[in-house]
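Deliverable D4.2, example record:
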Amino acid sequence: MLPGILAGVRSARRAYQRRRREDEEQARRDRDAEARRWDEEAFNSREKRRMEFVDAVHEQLTQCLKLATVLAHHLCR
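Output generated by the structure prediction step:
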């Protein structure tokens, strides 16, 4: 009977170790996914600020062009 009990204990131990490795691997994948989400959110935030800056510069350039056009029109008269 003892060999059967020992075989059962070894089998249970292997199953426990396998489950523990799988849990650790899943935890690592979860951490990696969370880090990727944080990186993506940071990237998107930076890109949003960059586009807001580009839009502000574009608006200022458009206003300057309009003013230059008006001034040129008045000076040419």
